[in-house]
Amino acid sequence: MKKFRKYTAIIIAALFITSCLSACGSKDTASSETSAVTAAETAAEATAKEASKALEENTSESKEGNEMTNQSAAQDTELKRDGEEHEEMTEVNNVRLSVKEAGSGRDMILIHGRTLSKEDMDPLFQRYKNQYNVVSYDVRGHGKTESSGEFTLDDLSDDLVGLMSVYHLENPIVIGFSMGSYIALRTAERNPNLFSGIVLIGTRGGRTSSQWSATDEVGRALESYDNMTDAPKATLPVLVLTGENDTINPPDEGKKVADALPNAVYKVVPGAEHMAYEGNPDFVFEQIDEFLERLN
């Protein structure tokens, strides 16, 4: 900035000299005029060179500053993606989401169910963080994430897309449980090529299954959603898992979703209730592992 001011002053001085030259030219003799012109031209040329040099130096410094800023940003991103488990608040769509990340390699996103938090996805988080770069987050109105007032299922879908952009996640595998499965499927319907595959655990195709009344913004966002109308648009590979004894989203609901999808595999989890990955983890992980192998 100082050098910018310097070459600006130099240019002004050059203009002043030229102005003086014009004034002198009308009063002096031809000989003295010639001398004045020569002296003025020399001075103007010198000031112009100095101004050019100052401008070049200022531009160089500005470029170096931008490069240092970019390098710093890249280093920050690298530190966040070093494989170590960390948790932070991240702004997405003007909402501060609580996000946890660990691991390296192919990207995976976990989305919890209603009234829960990202910690309820820890069995999956711990299982896959040694093989994948796993990101788990608190959905709006849950855990440590802000509520932000009224919202819709499409807003929750936009949050998922925004999270991918912030964390530079490319074609991730998304595992959604209950409400998380609605968000994952809705996003796949709206963006068919965004994910490499999705796993829907304890899902259904329309209207919330929650035992809780729609007395809060989360309930109102889910009470009238519909994932069946646009289901044919979700052409990516899908694994649908429903607990055999799930009374919240019974097996026939999960099968209805799977039948509506062009490329879905449906499995009933023996002996499990709604949170099937806790009721029968061995079976659930076996099915997910086979699904991931097919994707690879």
Taking all residues together, what is the mean pLDDT? 80
Biggest sheet descriptor: 8 strands, mixed
Structural class: alpha/beta
Q: How many E-type strands? A: 8
Q: How much is the radius of gyration in Å? A: 32 Å
* Uncertain regions spanning at least 5 consecutive residues: 1-44, 58-79
How are the strands of the largest sheet arranged?
1-2-4-3-5-6-7-8
Strand and helix order: HHEEEHEHEHEHEHEHH
Which of globular, elongated, flat, extended, rod-shaped describes the shape? globular
First-to-last CA distance: 53 Å
**Helicity, in percent?**
40-55%
Q: Number of DSSP helices?
A: 9
Q: Quote the beta fraction.
A: 15-25%
Would you give an account of this structure?
With 296 residues, the protein is of the alpha/beta class. Helix content is 48%, strand content 16%. It is built from nine helices and eight strands. The protein has an eight-stranded mixed β-sheet with strand order 1-2-4-3-5-6-7-8, sandwiched between helices. Helix 1 (2-25) runs antiparallel to helix 2 and helix 4 packs across helix 5 (179-190).
List the topology elements.
Elements lengths: L1 H24 L4 H51 L5 E7 L2 E8 L4 E5 L10 H7 L4 E5 L15 H14 L6 E5 L1 H12 L6 E5 L15 H6 L15 E6 L7 H10 L3 E6 L6 H4 L1 H15 L1
Parallel strand pairs: 3-4, 3-5, 5-6, 6-7, 7-8
Antiparallel strand pairs: 1-2, 2-4
Properties at a glance:
8-stranded mixed beta sheet, globular, 8 strands, 9 helices, 296 residues, alpha/beta
Summarize the structure.
The protein is an alpha/beta fold.
